[in-house]
Amino acid sequence: MPVSGRKVKLGLILSIVLLIVSLGIILLGAELFTNGIEWFGKKLQLAEGAVGSVLAAVGTALPETMIPVIAILFSGAGKGHDIGIGAILGAPLMLSTLAFFVTGAAVLGFASSGRRTKVVNVSPVVVGRDLRSFFLVYAVAIGAAFLPNRPLKIAAAVFLVGAYVYYVRNTFCYAEDPSHESEIHPLHFHRRAASPRLRIVVSQVAFALICIVGGAHLFVQNLSLIALASGVSALILATIISPIATELPEKFNSVIWIRQKKDTLALGNITGAMVFQSSIPTAIGILFTDWVLNAHALAAGIAALAASVFAWAELKICGKLSPYSLMAGIIFYIGFLIYIFC
Predict the structure, then answer these.
(1) What are the domain boundaries of the chain?
(2) Tens digits of per-residue pLDDT, 273-328?
(3) 184: helix, coil or strand?
(4) Among positive and negative, which fits the CA dihedral 206, 269, 87, 143?
(5) How buried is residue 185: exposed, middle or buried, by Cβ count under 10 Å (0-12/13-18/19+)?
(6) Is the CATH number 2.60.120.620 carried by domain 48-176+248-341?
(7) What is the DSSP annotation of 28-86?
(8) Model-level pTM?
């Protein structure tokens, strides 16, 4: 084998090893984060709805949020803006389809091993509010692409920011009674303490976020190298692989909470991130780009809305969610892929 070929092979093996290492780092960060953010919420006397839908959702949304922000603000017009818009619309799509699917599959998986039941015990108030908020802000975000002039688009961006502030206010003010909270495992950074100090809790959360963001960055970097070495097209990498990688924190956090039977935290982590991703990053996209959406971008938006409406309809009609309706999200994702590539 030529020296150049050997170097490529060794580089590919190293990238695969680092890919596995990055997954371990993300898993470690997710475990520390879920444990720490629960303690942080308890210290502030917050209910599970506020912890899952705001604190956990925004914290774990950092990796995928930074990609479009950096692409839009520092890469200039043209390709940078296209990447940014694609990443902004890709996040809600992944959350409402793949993240829902993984969560539903986790419920069935842990139920089959006897760790929990198949019933998804979420608060209809918390998750219902999240999904309704997502419908509103995401519909405005998509509709902004059809506005005829710049001032109207700026007004839409301002509305999105205001809507998210209103959503956060309602989540904190009208969340469930904090006294009805589930048991929290000892803080990993201070396992012997019955009630660890706030500064230790904050230290664990900060360290967890560093692990999550750093692990996600390492994952995407090495996944890119593997894709290039194996001949995977840049289109597939940009529209599918990288967004899946950056959504890993939400998926891992939710699986951990599903295992612990904390379903409101698990679903709120995803639905709260959907509200955040469809408002704040989208507002940045509208303000700093032309915000013109092509057919593929519109398809991503429609698939995300359809998947979330499907879950919301069951919650509204039956007053609960089943793992099967969550897993149905994969159907909308596959439909999106068929439209893109066929």
Answers:
(1) 48-176+248-341
(2) 899 999 999 999 999 888 988 888 899 899 999 999 999 999 989 888 899 999 99
(3) coil
(4) negative
(5) exposed
(6) no
(7) HHHHHHHHHHHHHHHHTT--HHHIIIIIIHHHHTHHHHHHHHHHHHHS-TTHHHHHHHH
(8) 0.79
